[in-house]
## 1
Amino acid sequence: MYVLTLEKEKRIVQPNPEAMETELKVNNLNVFYGSNHAVKNVSMEIKKHAITALIGPSGCGKSTFLRSINRMNDLIPGAVCKGEILYEGINLLDASVDVVSLRKEIGMLFQKPNPFPKSIFDNVTHGLKCAGIRKKDVLENAVEESLKLAGLWDETKDRLKHSALSLSGGQQQRLCLARALAMKPKVLLLDEPTSALDPVSTAKIEELLMSLKKRITIVIVTHNMQQAARIADQTAFFYEGTLVEFGNTRDLFENPTHTRTKSYISGQFG
Ligand SMILES: Nc1ncnc2c1ncn2[C@@H]1O[C@H](COP(=O)(O)OP(=O)(O)OP(=O)(O)O)[C@@H](O)[C@H]1O
Ligand SMILES: [Mg+2]
């Protein structure tokens, strides 16, 4: 089930998304903010343990689409989502879905690192404590495991009681990643997670996402097309609320079907 692709400097083995299991099946998703029809009849299959990138010009509906997956749009007055987002046989848009449990399973990371003004340790354990976990050894193990997964353990193991705000921007973003990972999510949604970071911190996050996809399904919004090309298995191009083109990242960048995709990826607008 693997396709061998030849990159410029090195040969890598990439999974073939078409042969992968589906994690989220989106059917005819429409999102409205009052009279603004922000996402228009979008259908797509997000593959399990793959990285799916969402690209497109500002205002095309990427964040709106992403937020509908873990029902964050519920928090926006006047926002209405219609259609289906099937996950483990359930339509996540159903009123009966418990959004607190949903957001544990489908975590999110935002553009600006948003650690709580608390210690590094307390940031990572926040969700676990909210879920009623109090045992010291359980919390300590979760902190170590999550910080290791987020590539932050070596830098923070001797300062876990220090304020999270004493960390650099890139470290804060990895701390937010650790905080999300502590909840053992099955899916992680990332909205431009590296756009506020320097190239070194960006590369570090990209590397982490590539290794995390072994255990987590990842959906990432990015304005950085090189980033999508580097890390995503599948890429979706949105324009004015519509999903114009969706497919294997390599095909989309090297052989786009639609003229609009072609002009966007060649930098003619956006
Ligand atoms: N909280 C909100 N309330 C009302 N309208 C909103 C809200 N968020 C987004 N919109 C509107 O929905 C449309 C899609 O916006 P969205 O933020 O999803 O785009 P985007 O592709 O993420 O853009 P960007 O790349 O600038 O982040 C836009 O017309 C925007 O004005
Ligand atoms: Mg956005």
## 2
Amino acid sequence: MARMMADCRRFPSESNCSLTIIGEEDEVVRAAAEHAASVHGHEDTPELREQLRGFLEPAGQYSNEPREQEAMPG
Ligand SMILES: [Zn+2]
């Protein structure tokens, strides 16, 4: 199974979070949801997990260089 990436650097956050999570899709969604709840004050709900799933990018796109931030959708 292809590995996926959830990259906190993609979106603006108060803490300027630099975390990137890479793994299989379900692992990343779970870790990202727990991270969003513990660090960013989101509620870990099925809706949040669905939204996070939509944010995933192929792990091959990972770069350690700083990236341009996008506005958080919704
Ligand atoms: Zn974060």
